[in-house]
Amino acid sequence: MPFYKFKKEDLFTNTIELNPDCNFFIYGLKAYYKNVDQVLSNPNTPSGHINLYELNVNRSAGNLIYPFLPKGSSLEKFRTVSTTEFAALDSGTLMTGSYPLTATINTAVYDTSATRTQVDALKNVLNYYVYKSQHYAYSSSLGNKSSQRLTLIDLPSIFYGSRIKPGSVDLRFYLSGSLLGQLTDKNRNGELIQASGSISSNDGKVAGVVLYDEGLMVLTGSWNLNTLHTEKYVTDGGSAVAPRWNAFGRKTEQTVSSSYGIDVRGTQKLNMITMLTHAPRGDLNYSPNPTYASYDGQTSSEVKYSTSSFNYSEYPDMKLVNTISSSYSNHNEKFQKQTFISKIGIYDENQNLIAIAKLATPVRKQENDEYTFKLKLDY
User: Fold this and answer.
1) Nearest alpha carbon to residue 46 among 62, 63, 29
2) Which position among 6, 26, 44, 94 has the lowest Cβ density within 10 Å, counted as fewest Cβ atoms?
3) pTM assigned to the model
4) Cα-based torsion angle of the residue sequence 199, 202, 208, 212 in order, rounded to the nearest 10 degrees
5) Over the stretch 174-196, which tens digit does the pLDDT of each residue have?
6) CA 354: distance to chain centroid?
7) How far, in Å, are 228, 237, 244, 248 from residue 240 at the CA level?
8) CA–CA distance from 244 to each of 103, 137, 169, 182, 183 (Å)?
9) % helix / strand / coil in the chain, to the nearest 5?
């Protein structure tokens, strides 16, 4: 099998930046991804969720695949199985899990007295971004995120890629279907600024910040978006309050008149390598395929071969099959070497096969032909 080493001019590396759109609409207890209720087309994926690896998509309830693991001497177990539960199992007992694995947007509204473990865990991250804006500060004259009322929006990276694209965030607060207020990060520095609202005097105020790399948004805007309407935006058991940005996106049936729109654009970088592989003139005109050799009319001594620790050799005058077709009936064309290239293997420096490119249609290669194949690999 011939090997050809890539030359410097045969390899090109590019990075493509993709910006997938991601939008949610929240009403009541449900979130809708791209304005679609996934349950209607895929009963195994809840509304507002995205299915990791597309497992169990459109499978019937009694035909679902699932992960399993027997208890053995390796002591391997699922993370959902506690040490106590694992110890109580008999050897060989099958532990099972469930698919699909899904993710969705999470919104949490924290009252002034609520325990906020997730927010507290962001203290160092928020303080790190203070160089972009003072509104990131965990505690400052602008407010203390350890005690003030706020909303935390968590967007899993499976939706947007490696980071949220600055300048693409758009949050909308609706009341009875009418736009009550809108936030954007128009300055691209993470500040969520009210672009429009029913009370125009609040336009231009900073209502929160975006953590682009972490996929999080912290909303702290405490001004009223409407002074004539109240609902239970904070807790079901508490009193009704006016709509505010620090109570944005809460999933509850108590806010029947309110709904929320969230639009972002992600950033996902795709690395691509382009490889030019060459089939030179006069080369690659012999095939190791057994059907390439013709044994018709040859004696047993002529088809003998010899092997050793270093080589394998056949009879040097082995006849080859004439694959040149004739345009005339009962007529054989003159023999010419001819092969058909159907696959191209890519090897590492130790000649380990790492990739195979398959041609949709095999390419005929004769001795006076030369070809260049352009291969692309994403990683």
Assistant:
1) 29
2) 94
3) 0.73
4) 90
5) 999 999 999 999 999 999 999 99
6) 23
7) 12, 9, 12, 14
8) 27, 21, 18, 11, 12
9) 10, 40, 50
